[in-house]
Amino acid sequence: GMLVLLGTWGIWMGTRHASLHVARDIGQGFALEVLGAHTYTWAWLIHWVVLLAAGVLLLVVRGPLGASRDATPGRAGRFAMGLLVVLTAGNAVQAFISTGPPPFFGQGDPVRLSLDPRHWVWSLGELEGDIGWRGSWAVPEPDPAVTGSDPEPARGPLAGLTTLAIDRWERVAAPLDGALTSFATADRADGPVLVTTEGHGVLVLDRSLSRVLHRVVLDPAYSIDLSPLAGAALLGPDTLAVVSTNKSYVLLRPDPDADPDREWRHFLETGGAVTELRRSRFATVRARLMYVLSLAYDPASDALITVSVPSERHPQLVVSRFDRADLVLSSELVPELGPGLETVGPERGLEEYVVTGAAVADGRLYAISAAYSTLLAIDLATGTVTAAYAVPELVDPVGLAAPDDELWIAQADGRVAVVARPGL
Fold this sequence. Notes:
Layout: H1 2-19, E1 33-34, E2 37-38, H2 39-60, H3 75-99, H4 144-147, E3 162-163, E4 168-171, E5 180-185, E6 193-197, E7 201-205, E8 212-218, E9 229-235, E10 239-244, E11 248-254, H5 260-263, E12 267-270, E13 274-281, E14 291-292, E15 296-298, E16 303-309, E17 319-323, E18 328-333, E19 336-337, E20 355-361, E21 364-369, E22 374-379, E23 384-390, E24 397-401, E25 406-411, E26 415-420
Parallel strand pairs: 3-23, 19-23
Antiparallel strand pairs: 1-2, 4-26, 5-6, 6-7, 7-8, 8-12, 9-10, 10-11, 11-13, 14-16, 15-16, 16-17, 17-18, 20-21, 21-22, 22-23, 24-25, 25-26
């Protein structure tokens, strides 16, 4: 029983260690290779062989497992017992040299082993910070009640914001499944509007926002898992893109010839005239452990764009671009303040903004932040924030579109604030 428990524990630790490195690029790894496999891979393999051998031995046993009182080990048994003592002692010496006695803790990236005490490193560094089961993966999902908890622009990190007045209010009059979670429009004046709702609803509306042209409810647990939908973009005249907070995305297409039997696996509900083209995940580097709440499409570079949601563990605003040809990461940037913009204090920064809607126009990425109701204009060529505007009166903005010469800022309650696009 102890053999099985220890073997299971060894497989778990070997798998956990290997999983940190197994997905690296070609030829990359950690520590020494033995027969083409790194040492942490051998830890998994050896414990698996131990369990496999134990299973075979148990299958071939005939009679009770317990030995009689007068049984004595043979030559092989005595050798095995001696070898066990030597290996255990060797591991104890190595652990003492590399880790030290309590309360010292092993290093995450251990130093080279040496028998010279001058080169021993006993550290308490791994005890610093929060300790949790998931480590750096312990990032809370974006909470709508928190992202826009302080809508007052004057309390934001940027000083001297210009105020954008709201020209008029529109409202989504079409029947929805729940609160809006994203909003996008086509470039042309008579083009459709794409929205997502709570419960993974995807709807195409007419430009008046009063009629539903197409509607589906995505199956969030089919194949690629979808967390709540958070961003939408129209890719040309006939392709719809939506992204969830965990950066999983779905491409859809209105199709009068859609096969309802084939599409049954994709949708919990459907109007019958929509086809799912692709479902996959965006892979990022700088934003790897960060969620998103927005999606935009840049027709000039034919790329989709996401903006990360900063967290306490990863306080950073990252703009990621994905080439539409293969939807693979093509570039990432961390925006910096351009000339004429400054923070209210040295401890404040762009990472305080929570971008919940984004749109591209005139070579700039417009991003609306639910925190502090602030609109950022980011030059995609230089990666700098060229302008920032306060947009008062917003309540829980969830989407942004840039039709004609305007910006439409959609709220979760279905109201849409329309402002003149700044700089035109």
